[in-house]
Amino acid sequence: MKLSILPSLLTTTLATCTTDDHCSLNGLCNPKTSTCTCDPGWTGTNCGTLDLRHATRGTGYNHTTTNASDPYTSGRGNSSWGAHILQDRRDPKLFHLITSQFAHGCGLSAWKPFSTVIRGESQTGPQGPYEWKQEILGPWHHNPATVWSEKDGLWLLYTIGDPVTPPTSCKSQSLSNNISVVASPDLKTWTVPKRVLSGATNPAPWPVWSRENDTSEIVLGIEDATIYKAGAWDAEYTLVKTQSWNTSDYSPTWTEDPFLWQDKRGNWHLLVHWMIDISENGVKYPRVGAHLFSREVDGNWTFVEHEAFNTSVEFTDGSRTDYYRRERPKLFFSGDGEVTPLYLVSGVQEFNASGASYTLVQPVGDGAEVYERGLGF
Ligand SMILES: *[C@@H]1O[C@H](CO)[C@@H](O)[C@H](O)[C@H]1NC(C)=O
Ligand SMILES: *[C@@H]1O[C@H](CO)[C@@H](O)[C@H](O)[C@H]1NC(C)=O
Ligand SMILES: *[C@@H]1O[C@H](CO)[C@@H](O)[C@H](O)[C@H]1NC(C)=O
Ligand SMILES: *[C@@H]1O[C@H](CO)[C@@H](O)[C@H](O)[C@H]1NC(C)=O
Ligand SMILES: *[C@@H]1O[C@H](CO)[C@@H](O)[C@H](O)[C@H]1NC(C)=O
Ligand SMILES: *[C@@H]1O[C@H](CO)[C@@H](O)[C@H](O)[C@H]1NC(C)=O
Ligand SMILES: *[C@@H]1O[C@H](CO)[C@@H](O)[C@H](O)[C@H]1NC(C)=O
Ligand SMILES: *[C@@H]1O[C@H](CO)[C@@H](O)[C@H](O)[C@H]1NC(C)=O
Ligand SMILES: CC(=O)N[C@H]1CO[C@H](CO)[C@@H](O)[C@@H]1O
Where is the EGF-like domain (predicted)? Predict the structure, then answer.
C-alpha cells in the first residue's frame, strides 16, 4: 500500500498539473495524481512531445537522385519540401501527397521562382513511397496546404505564389508572398487560383465543420501564428489573432511553417518550425518543432519553449539520420473523430546535401500501425 503510492508521489515532485493546460491540451490532468494522461500520439510529462516511431527508408517522396525533366543542374533531382498526405475519398487504399517540387532540378536553394505544386500517389499505404503524378501549379507556387472541406465537398489547396517565367539557370528571384486558394472535388481537376491574402505566407487552413456544427467557416493560420477567419473558403479572410509573444527573428519564440488543427474537445493547436537553435547557437538543428495551444482560436495561446520533435529520425532498419534541416511539419489525423495524429510529414535536408531535399513521412503513436493494418497493408 505504502509502496504503491510511491511512484505517483515521485512523478508529482517531477511534474505536476492542476489543469489540462499543463498537459498542453493534448491530454487530461488527473486530479488525484496531478499528472497528465496523454492522448494517443502525444507523450512526455506535459504531453507536448510527439510520440514518433521508426520511419521506413525508401518511403515518403524522396526523388533527389532522379533526373529532373530539362535539368539546369545535377545532383538535386526532383527535390521537394514537406507535404500533406491525403486519403482518396473513393478508394481508401489510395493515398495522395501534395508537395512543393523544384523545377529543372534546381533544388531547395532556388525555391523562388522554381517551386511548383505537384501531386504524387502511393498504392502501398500512407507512408508511401509516393510517385510523381501531376503538376497542379507551375512556377512559382510554393507551400501547398491541402484540406478536405466536408461542407463544400471539395479539397481546398492554399498556396503562395503567382505565375512567373523563371530564368534559364537555377538563379533565385525576389518575389512577394501572396496566398491563394484552389479547389477540387477529386485532387485532379482544380479551379483557377483565387487570392486570399497579399503580403502573407505559410498558409495553415482548417475547416471548422464538424458533425455537430454544420458551418462553412475556415480558420487560416499564417506566419508568426497569426490567425484569420472566413465565413467560407472563397469569402473574405479577416484577422482574428496576432500573438503576444515576441515573433521577431532571433527571439526565443521565433517560428515559421505553422500547421493548425482543432482537436476532438474543440481546443486549438499549432505545430510549428521553431528556430530556437538558430537564435541560440546559429545552427538549424536539432530542436526544430514547437507545439502551441489555446482553448479559443482567438484566445490566449500558450507557447511552451520545449521541443515537440527534433531532427533525429530512427529507421526500421536500425539506422538513424540526424538531419541538417527538418521543417514544414504537418500531421495526418485519424478520420474517426478522435483527431489522433498518425503521421508527421516534414521537409528534410541531410548534411552537405547542396540543395537536395525530400519529404519524410514518420509514423506517430500506436495508431499508425493499427490504421495500416485496418486498410490491409
Ligand atoms: C532518400 O534518398 C537518398 C538518396 O537515394 C538516400 O540516401 C536516403 O537514405 C533516402 N532517405 C530516406 C528516408 O528514405
Ligand atoms: C540520368 O541522366 C544521365 C545522363 O543522361 C543518365 O546516364 C542516367 O542513366 C540517368 N539516370 C536516371 C535515373 O534516369
Ligand atoms: C520528376 O518530375 C517530373 C516533372 O517535373 C516528372 O515528369 C517525373 O516523372 C518525375 N520523376 C520522378 C522519378 O519523380
Ligand atoms: C459553429 O461554428 C461557428 C463558426 O465557427 C461558431 O460561430 C459557432 O459558435 C459554432 N456553433 C457551435 C454550436 O459550436
Ligand atoms: C524580440 O526579440 C528580438 C530578437 O531577440 C529582440 O531584439 C527584441 O528586443 C525583442 N523584443 C521584445 C519586445 O522583447
Ligand atoms: C494565458 O495563459 C497563461 C498560461 O496558461 C496564463 O498564465 C495567463 O494568465 C493567461 N492569460 C490570460 C489573459 O488569460
Ligand atoms: C530527439 O528526440 C528524441 C525523442 O524525444 C530523443 O530521444 C533524442 O535524444 C533527441 N535527439 C536530439 C539530438 O536532441
Ligand atoms: C560535411 O562536409 C564537411 C566538409 O566536407 C565534413 O567535414 C563534414 O563531416 C560533413 N558532415 C556530415 C554530417 O557528413
Ligand atoms: C502578383 C501580385 O498580386 N502580387 C502582389 C502580392 O502582394 C504584394 C503586397 O504585399 C503586392 O504588392 C503584389 O502586387
Answer: 13-48
Contact 80, 61 (CB under 8 A): yes
pLDDT tens digit sequence for 204-222 = 999 999 999 999 999 999 9
Residue 7 has pLDDT above 80, yes or no: no
Q: What is the DSSP string of 27-68?
A: EEEETTTTEEEEPTTEESTTS-EE-B--B-TT-SB-BTTSPP
* String of DSSP letters for 73-111: SSS--B-EEEEEEEE-SS-TT-EEEEEEEEGGG--GGGH
- CB contact at 8 A, 270 and 249: no
- pTM for the predicted model, two decimal places: 0.94
**CB 142 less than 6 A from any atom of ligand 3:** no
Count of C-beta atoms within a 10 Å radius of residue 352 = 7
- Longest Cα–Cα distance in the chain: 76
Asked whether 352 lines ligand 8 (CB < 6 A), one says yes
Q: In Å, how far from its chain's centre is CA 166?
A: 28
For domain 6-375, give the fold: Tachylectin-2; Chain A (2.115.10)
Length of the chain: 377
Smallest Cα–Cα separation from 55: which of 317, 341, 331? 317
